[in-house]
Design brief:
single chain, Spore Coat Polysaccharide Biosynthesis Protein SpsA, Chain A, 5-stranded mixed β-sheet, 3-stranded mixed β-sheet, globular
Amino acid sequence: MLAVIIPTLNAEHCLPTLLPELETVRVVISDGGSKDETLKTALKAGAVIARGTPGRGAQLARGAELAGAVDNVDAYLFLHADCDLLPGWESVVQTALKTCGTAWYFRYQPNVKGRGVTWLRFIVWLRGWAWCLPYGDQGLLVPREIYEGIGGYDRDKALFEDVDIVDRIKFKYGRRALRKLPMALHTDISDHVRQGIWARGWRNFKLLKAYRKGAPVDDLLRRYI
């Protein structure tokens, strides 16, 4: 059984689009203290709620822990609340899970077009090809055995929790244990557009570089927000 874990914080505007695409699977909304209609929307759609402290690492770990309390859950799909799955996604995921010892991520497909977006897609492709480093906005499909084998998400990682878990998957199981699904995931890049695609991209690159050099995550988070 597949469990989908979605971290949320005031995501009422996103969930009505995403949740109807997940009616056939177990959904856990891991909320970090929403003040809007996020929880009401999630409950109406039949999702299970995990509430607690904010921070993506903590929320994803908490959501997986709740989902994993059901014995027949054998895989986790971690998604951002502002993504959009394409028709046929479940068949693609189930086919991928037949390959043992492998975690997966979606192709990157922003929800807008333009020259800057084309370059952004190329950079994301290059990052995946050169470093095998998808970010959380590409989703992460992980068999339960692999997830538990690496200890799951780091609860203390409020930022770069996606980089951390991908690093640990590759370290323990090898680079080939992480593959790209033959399907795209629509990603909301409104923040990139609002802040400027190049400005946002350059800032994220500098933050990743600082993270790799050991900068405290709390300091990086203040620069990220």
